[in-house]
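Quiz preparation item.
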């Protein structure tokens, strides 16, 4: 039968049911269309003749009663008077002829002039008798449909006749003109009907698969055979919940009566639960019901609605009694697999050793064990390598179905001193140990008799002890206990416990190694950050640094004293985490210190850092000029050296600020870093707009500095983006929180740091946080002295004397001589080798600062002068007497500065042979 179905015809063959139906429909439609077409033709001819009669009679009647017709007939020449009138009436009425005749039928007028004067043929007696009539005339001159109407006088006498009509040939032409339309309509109707029959038959062919009646009968027999031969019961129930069909297997499984069809499902004698399922019509899949001593699995699905009638249901059922035991074990196995999957997802979500142990205990309760304890070795908790000794461990995690339990709490020291305990055996053997009945565990009871008795009294009755092994080394162990669950652990449970614990051991070892690296990175990071900030008159500073929980990054800060009582405030962030980022941070901080000694403007300093960062993390490849030097394949930021992976630092951000307390001027530039917050004395917080700069080591673009004049009592707050951004908070939200946290006035920098962290700090920050709060101060006007110096050597002594007077006013007589010597030397050289304008400034800070500025960019250089040299000793003397000295460049020249302590160690000038001050003017660089 399958072969025949595979070779079923594609067309509408007469052998199939669809082909026979199509042929019968086509014949019937052809007959109906033919009969209809003939009927329409005859009807058209009849209608045309009738229309000709009506038009002819109406025209004749109208002309017979026309005014003046009788008078025209009585005239001597009626033809002359009536011929044109008659012809006009004929043409107006659309007739073929219209004739006026005498009562005897002699024509006065006619559409054919040659017939005038001739007698009309045919029977006109009825018209002479006064009757108007129509007829089909056959004869000379032509066959026609004509009407004859008598012409009466006012007295009723008949004085003539009017004949009008249409030739039969023209009537036939009208019918023939309609034939193409009639035939076309009939053909269209035939095609439409045949096409509809073909569509119906085609659909029938699809439904019957092109089979003939005999084949369909055989298929139905086969379906019946299959339906009753399968080993699965089938029930079909209609919308009224009556049984329509039940196969033999369903009758056997449900013990149905022979006449069960057409009965309501509640009348079939089924189990009440099964009958309720059949009545409800709800969809179920493998729902198990009890039928006698059998367990039947039911599947119920609705049937599609048919012709608007409510849907019924189809139910299949099978005997699952033999599979019940297997399904129970399969369900347990499925649950164990699901638990292992969840363990892979839930264990190791953090790189924290304690939390990972807690996740192991939480996963196993209550689906595998009623209580779970996890003990780890002390070195593991600290991130160190296990020592190999495992007689003492620290209880790290404990989870159970109840809060009250007889087990030792978290934090207790767990000892395995009795070698026959399950824990000691598991650690010694490196495999799990099963104790089905704890009452038989003599070693466990001997180690802690009191604790064991309490545990047994509580209900603990079974145990699986599994060592936590990673790379063959024991990190600790996990113990699985049962109390409420009546079944003891079995051999299958032992395998599962080992698999679950092995997964957790890998995560714990990863967390241990991360803990070690994190601790090392934190130690390195803190060692590279400033331990003690310098005490400065320019600013009062407080800071906070917090490493990230997930890995130490490269955040750093610094406070660098600069010449002229100025100070540099720095904060930065190296991209990346771990030891490498911390080490790179230290190198960058050192570089910033070195560049700051050159007293560069912020934008120039960042430019030097930008050049440095591209080389600072590049190993020596031996090809200094090679393209892509120090980069791995594809420029991914990683290289391979000796087979080891080396991380590349892809960039860093930095904010560099220089504050001058003498003028209140603040110059700042940034490289991809957030700008500072400026807190005014009234609590108003603003974030100054700084020119944007690319991160260091990214683009090589120049940087731009901005200059602000800070009001008295201003506070600068520098920070890294880890303070503001987090997984659940964007940068703008963090910026608003920071604004609110800084708005409170009257707080010290230390208190401000504390309040900011309290407002913005997350419990586990994802990135490092560096925070620097600096209260700016201004130097009082009476601690600053300035002079303009003309380019005249004669003014050197004047300025020197005025400087000595100012030092005396500041009570700095102890260092007056040294200061005068330095002033004389620096002013003299500025006049000789510099350019105007020349200015002198003295600042009394924690040290005395002497500054001489001029308009030249030529810098002096310290050197040893030979005995025969006429000059060169002056700068050497300055270097000997000053604590520090140097040169910094400005936009229009340079500043040479020197710093002196406010007092000498013994209150006297250091013993040194010095020439007279007036002679210093003759010395040269």
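Solution:
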């Amino acid at each position: 039968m399958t072969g025949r179905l595979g070779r079923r015809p594609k067309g509408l063959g007469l052998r199939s049911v669809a082909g026979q139906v199509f042929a019968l429909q086509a014949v019937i439609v052809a007959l109906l269309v033919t009969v209809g077409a003939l009927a329409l033709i005859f009807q058209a001819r009849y209608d045309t003749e009738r229309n000709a009669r009506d038009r002819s009679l109406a025209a004749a009647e109208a002309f017979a009663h026309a005014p003046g017709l009788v008078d025209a007939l009585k005239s001597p020449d009626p033809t002359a008077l009536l011929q044109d009138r008659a012809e006009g009436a004929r043409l107006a009425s659309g007739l073929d002829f219209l004739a006026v005749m005498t009562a005897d039928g002699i024509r006065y007028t006619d559409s054919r002039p040659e017939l005038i004067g001739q007698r009309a043929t045919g029977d006109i007696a009825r018209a002479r008798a006064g009757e108007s009539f129509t007829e089909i005339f056959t004869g000379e001159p032509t066959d026609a449909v004509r009407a004859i109407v008598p012409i009466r006088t006012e007295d009723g006498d008949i004085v003539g006749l009017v004949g009008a009509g249409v030739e039969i040939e023209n009537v036939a032409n009208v019918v023939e003109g309609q034939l193409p339309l009639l035939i076309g309509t009939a053909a269209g109707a035939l095609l439409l009907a045949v096409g509809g029959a073909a569509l119906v038959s085609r659909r029938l062919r699809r439904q019957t698969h092109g089979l003939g009646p005999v084949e369909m009968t055989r298929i139905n027999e086969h379906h019946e055979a299959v339906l009753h031969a399968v080993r699965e019961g089938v029930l079909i129930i209609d919308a009224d919940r009556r049984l329509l069909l039940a196969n033999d297997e369903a009758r056997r499984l449900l013990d149905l009566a022979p006449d069960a069809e057409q009965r309501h499902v509640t009348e079939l004698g089924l189990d009440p639960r099964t009958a309720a399922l059949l009545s409800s019509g709800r969809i179920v899949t493998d729902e198990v019901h009890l039928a006698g001593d059998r367990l039947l699995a039911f599947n119920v699905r609705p049937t599609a609605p048919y012709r608007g009638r409510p849907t019924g249901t189809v139910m299949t059922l099978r005997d699952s009694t033999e599979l019940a035991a297997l399904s129970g074990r399969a369900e347990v196995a499925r649950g164990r697999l699901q638990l292992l999957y969840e363990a892979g997802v839930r264990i190791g979500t953090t790189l924290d050793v304690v939390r990972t142990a807690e996740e192991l205990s939480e996963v196993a309760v209550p689906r595998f064990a009623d209580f779970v304890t996890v003990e780890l070795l002390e070195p593991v908790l600290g991130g160190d390598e296990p020592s190999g000794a495992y007689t003492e461990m620290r209880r790290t995690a404990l989870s159970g179905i109840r809060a009250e339990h007889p087990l030792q709490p978290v934090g207790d020291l767990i000892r395995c001193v009795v070698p026959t305990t399950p824990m000691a055996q598991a650690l010694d053997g490196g495999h799990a140990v099963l104790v089905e009945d704890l009452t038989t565990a003599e070693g466990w009871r001997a180690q802690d008799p009191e604790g064991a008795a309490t545990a047994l009294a509580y209900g603990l009755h079974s145990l699986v002890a599994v060592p936590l092994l990673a790379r063959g080394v024991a990190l600790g162990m996990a113990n699985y206990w049962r109390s409420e669950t009546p079944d003891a652990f079995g051999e299958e449970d032992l395998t599962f416990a080992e698999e679950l614990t092995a997964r957790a051991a890998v995560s714990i070892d990863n967390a241990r190694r991360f803990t070690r690296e994190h601790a090392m990175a934190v130690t390195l990071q803190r060692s590279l950050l400033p331990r003690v900030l310098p005490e400065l008159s320019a600013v009062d500073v407080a800071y906070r640094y917090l490493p990230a929980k997930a890995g130490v990054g490269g955040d750093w800060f610094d406070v660098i004293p600069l010449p002229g009582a100025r100070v540099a405030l720095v904060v930065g962030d190296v991209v990346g985490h771990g030891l490498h980022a911390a080490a790179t941070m230290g190198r960058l901080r050192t570089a910033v210190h070195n560049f700051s000694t050159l007293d560069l403007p912020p934008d120039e300093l960042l430019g030097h850092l930008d050049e440095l960062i591209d080389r600072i993390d590049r190993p020596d490849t031996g090809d200094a000029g090679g393209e892509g030097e120090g980069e791995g394949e594809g420029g991914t930021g990683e290289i391979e050296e000796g087979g080891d992976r080396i991380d590349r630092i892809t960039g860093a951000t930095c904010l560099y600020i220089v504050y001058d307390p003498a003028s209140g001027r603040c110059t700042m530039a940034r490289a991809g870093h957030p700008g500072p917050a400026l807190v005014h004395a009234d609590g108003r917080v603003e974030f100054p707009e700084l020119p944007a700069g690319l991160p260091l080591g990214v683009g090589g673009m120049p940087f731009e500095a901005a200059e602000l004049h800070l009001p008295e009592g201003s506070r600068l707050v520098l920070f890294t983006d880890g303070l503001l951004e987090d997984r659940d908070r964007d940068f703008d939200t963090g910026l608003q929180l920071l604004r609110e946290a800084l708005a409170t006035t009257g707080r010290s920098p230390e208190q401000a740091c504390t309040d900011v962290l309290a407002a913005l700090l997350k419990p586990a920050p994802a990135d490092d946080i560096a925070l620097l709060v600096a209260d700016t101060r201004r130097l009082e006007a009476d601690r600053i002295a300035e002079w303009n110096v003309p380019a005249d050597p004669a003014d050197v002594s004047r300025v020197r004397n005025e400087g000595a007077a100012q030092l005396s006013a500041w009570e700095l007589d102890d260092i007056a001589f040294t200061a005068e010597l330095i002033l004389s030397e620096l002013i003299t050289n500025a006049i000789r080798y510099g350019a105007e304008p020349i200015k002198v400034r003295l600042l009394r800070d924690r040290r005395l600062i002497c500054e001489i500025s001029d308009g030249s960019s030529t810098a002096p250089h310290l050197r040893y002068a030979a005995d025969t040299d006429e000059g060169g000793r002056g700068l050497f003397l300055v270097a000997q007497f000053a604590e520090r000295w140097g040169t910094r460049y400005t936009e229009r020249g340079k500043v040479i500065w020197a710093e002196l302590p406010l007092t000498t160690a013994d209150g006297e000038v250091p013993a040194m042979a010095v020439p007279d001050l007036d002679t210093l003017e003759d010395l040269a660089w």
